[in-house]
Amino acid sequence: MGNYAWSHRLEDVDLEELSRLYRIAPLGDKPPERLATVFGNSRFTCFVRAGDTLVGAGRALADGADCAYIADVAVHPDHQGQGLGSDIIRRLLELARDHKKILLYASPGTEPFYRKLGFLPMNTAMAVWADPDRAVDIGLLRREP
Hints:
The protein contains five helices and five strands; from the N terminus they run βααβββαβαα. It has 145 residues and is of the alpha+beta class. A hairpin with a 4-residue loop joins strand 3 and strand 4 (67-75).
């Protein structure tokens, strides 16, 4: 594994660079101003650099006691497969350890990865999505008869 520098401060990150990381990870188009909002409103953040390059990021929304939600974990393609994504999630789990429950949603097919990190599937999760038809199309949500 590479020699990485870790930070938990949004102030240490260029938002344009963070936006590029999400595009190439690939986790979609996340404009810098939107990232400023979601990371700024997250209780825990995690950023990873290899030299001068941002190669990993993640965040957790949390209320301080009951519930934390891990989101937006991204790893640069050149650094994937080396355990960096797992390390980011482990750090976020450690930061949120005093919460009663820690949640995340997993893209279809990634469940085995998250199981190795201690996550179990939920039977009771429900969601309201901004674009439910697309979420159904890509397998994040399902419509029941």
